[in-house]
Design a protein that fits this description.
Blueprint: H1 2-28, E1 32-38, H2 52-65, E2 74-78, H3 82-99, E3 105-111, E4 113-115, E5 118-121, E6 124-127, H4 128-137, E7 142-148, E8 162-163, E9 176-182, E10 192-193, E11 198-199, H5 200-212, E12 221-222, H6 223-237, E13 249-255, E14 261-263, E15 270-274, E16 280-286, E17 292-298, E18 303-306, E19 310-317, E20 322-329, E21 333-337, H7 340-351, E22 359-373, E23 376-393, E24 396-409, E25 416-427, E26 429-432, E27 435-451, E28 459-477, E29 480-495, E30 498-514
Parallel strand pairs: 1-2, 1-3, 3-7, 7-9, 15-21
Antiparallel strand pairs: 4-5, 5-6, 8-13, 9-13, 10-11, 12-14, 15-18, 16-17, 16-19, 19-20, 22-23, 22-30, 23-24, 24-25, 25-27, 26-27, 27-28, 28-29, 29-30
Helix pairs in contact: 2-5, 5-6
Pfam families: Peptidase_C14
InterPro entries: Caspase-like_dom_sf, Pept_C14_caspase
GO molecular function, one term: cysteine-type endopeptidase activity
Length: about 525
């Protein structure tokens, strides 16, 4: 009997030796928590948002599908005021105090109206400081606050977090600290898009977490990768928007070495690989609902997105319009989309100098032109241009219509000459950041009126002209730009003995507005 008891004790000790480390290892695995808030209605004098609550739902889906945040550890508030949000924060804080560990991390996402350092929620206000204090006081190792609100950059100025300028480089393993990301600067608007059916920032952040931001192609998206992608795409999307440029801001207080993994697209139940080497702009749309799942600018090489299993329409911006393909993503599987037509379409788009779409520009400003008659060396006036940037045919992606009115007075013989010039032109253009360089061949007509001629009646002539024009444009802000244009060519002018080709040169400095 004593031998049996001793044997049992030894077996129990062995089991403890084996199971103890397993239990310890399981307890050391960090868990992820999320509180997601969306509210369309702000203060009484603010226009109702259309997609704040939709953005919150989108973020919740992404976190649960690829962010490894379980539904059991996710709290969602769609439609709330300041009192209800404070109550939710208190409940979540109490639960974290019981269940969370220093190895866990927490994500708090809010999409709503904001201003003057407060969230605007259904006619009430909640200071952003309360969110930051909640994040800093949570009993977790890492806390991440994402604010998609107007002027939410105020939150990243609050005391206790270190500013980080883009581009960013982070190291964090055994992470301890807090991160605040805002969709806009302290004096900028966070903008929504009807085309994206959501805000620019949240859409690009969600697409990035699904895999578009995975620059290392390792099947995981880090905090650094997600922020870099969302920052660049939001900046690009709002560069010429009526609301002005939107620059997401970032503050952090992290310590340790390694990386913070925000999502793992490789573990999703459905994966879609855009297996085209060349860069291109893609749209991924759900076939049944027609909802836009992702709009992304794919870089060099293949890109894999985590999506729910089902049928999708893929559209790749080609030379003219879109190239479309339908696919079905299997459950717990991957579908790859590529092939020669898609590759060619992507390469054609990459080769185009003028970008994917067309744009109209109206410009007006003073001009100076050489004269075509003796005794009148130059004329000054006003130049008006309508410029279209968009492909006409191979090598020609700029066209324009110009109208100029100029007037001058003769020096040897007193007379007044008024010119009305109309010309059409087309040619290529090249973009380099905020600068656009263009060239064009132009043809048109020049109407000439001469009056106040001593002892003679007024004269009128209509002459054809041809010009070679070069221009440079600088985009200064939103839709405004400055344009400098110079032309050289000739006019078939009437003379007493017939007609003659008279050299012609002109220059204009204009202010442009994009329609």
């Amino acid at each position: 009997m004593s031998r049996a008891v001793g044997l049992g004790v030894r077996v129990f000790a062995v089991l403890l030796t084996v199971l103890g480390p397993l239990r310890s290892t399981a307890e050391e695995v960090p868990r992820r928590w999320a509180l997601v808030v969306g509210e369309n209605q702000g203060l009484a004098n603010e226009e109702r948002l259309r997609f704040a609550e939709t953005d919150a739902q989108r973020m919740r889906e992404v976190l649960q599908e690829v962010g490894t945040v379980s539904p059991e550890r996710t709290m969602t508030l769609l439609g709330t005021d300041a009192a209800k949000l404070r109550e939710a924060l208190a409940l979540f804080r109490a639960r974290l105090a019981v269940e969370a560990s220093p190895r866990d991390w927490l994500l708090l996402y809010v999409s709503s109206h904001a201003g003057d350092g407060s969230l605007h929620l259904r006619g009430t206000e909640l200071p952003m400081r309360e969110l930051v204090d909640f994040l800093k006081g949570a009993p977790v190792g890492v806390g991440l606050l994402i604010l998609d609100s107007c002027r939410s950059g105020v939150a990243t100025r609050l005391k206790g977090l270190k500013p980080v300028a883009a581009p960013i480089t982070m190291e964090a393993s055994d992470l301890e600290g807090r991160v605040v990301i805002s969709a806009s600067g302290a004096d900028e608007y966070a903008q929504e898009s009807d085309a994206l059916q959501g805000s620019f920032f949240t859409h690009h952040l969600a697409v990035g977490l699904r895999g578009a931001a995975d620059a290392s192609r390792d099947g995981r998206v880090t905090l650094e990768e997600a922020y870099r992608y969302a920052y660049a795409r939001t900046l690009e999307s709002t560069l010429v928007s009526p609301g002005g440029m939107q620059r997401p801001t970032f503050r952090m207080d992290l310590s340790g070495r390694g990386e913070l993994i925000l999502s793992e697209p490789q573990r999703a139940r459905g994966r879609l690989t855009l297996d085209v080497k060349a860069p291109g702009r893609w749209l991924v749309m759900a076939s049944e609902s027609g909802a836009l799942v992702a709009e992304l600018e794919k870089g060099e090489g293949p890109t894999t997105l985590a999506v729910a299993p089902g049928a999708y329409r893929l559209l790749l911006r080609a030379e003219d319009g879109y190239l479309e393909r339908s696919v079905r993503v299997p459950l717990d599987g991957t579908v790859s989309v590529g092939g020669e037509p898609l590759e060619q379409a992507a390469r054609m788009r990459l080769a185009r100098k003028g970008g994917a779409g067309s744009a109209l520009l109206v410009a007006v400003g003073p001009s100076l032109t050489s004269g075509i008659v003796s005794g009148l060396s130059s004329l000054a006036g006003l130049d008006v241009r309508l410029v279209r940037e968009g492909r006409l045919f191979s090598g020609v992606d700029t066209s324009g219509l110009g109208l100029a009115v100029r007037r001058g007075t003769g020096s040897r013989v007193s007379f007044q000459q008024t010119e009305l010039e109309l010309r059409l032109g087309a040619g290529p253009h090249w973009k380099l950041g905020a600068w656009t360089f263009s060239g064009a061949l132009e043809a048109g007509a020049l109407a000439v009126f001469q009056s106040r001629i001593p002892d003679e009646d007024a004269r009128f002539g209509l002459e054809p002209l041809g010009l070679v024009t070069g221009g440079v444009r600088l985009d200064v802000r939103s839709r405004l730009s400055m344009l400098l244009s110079a032309s050289a060519g000739g006019v078939m002018a009437k003379r007493d003995s017939g007609t003659a080709l008279v050299p012609r040169a002109s220059a204009s400095l204009m202010v442009g507005y994009a329609l």
